[in-house]
Amino acid sequence: MTVLLTGGSANGKSTFAERLLAALPQPQYYLFAMKPYGDGANAKIARHQEMRRGKGFIELERYSDVGGAPVAPGSSVLLECLCNLTANEMYDDVGNEREVFGKLYADVSRLRGACGNLVVVTNDVGSDCGGYDASTLRYVETLGRLNSALAADFDRVYELVAGIAVRLK
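^ that's the sequence the OP posted. Answer follows.
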């Protein structure tokens, strides 16, 4: 089974994703992509670590190349989150930008083939009327294309709105 979870920031995607993962066969991997790049990111990482403490998930940090994550065949994987992964792959450490749609789509497809169940968390970043600089607009467009492609391929798609999961597919 493959599930894509989307929605705005802080709308309960992670909580819902963890409940889905906990109900899937073991082993259960929590694959997280947020780099600890400052106080805000560190606080969010700590909050998420606390949320999943004691749930028995095998935690893997993977900031890029998720297709090569060491997961067991038939396992269940939660990828948190496609937004961070896209930024990690799209911009190098000094801000140089790369085209990454094809690579990310292939990586998620490889991860999907390596496990039995895959839950991917993403954000709806393009619905706020824009006003972005050119580089940010390319990020929003890349993530939007990835979200659309995965939504078409995946078995289920949910949008989280104010903590409520609305099934779209």
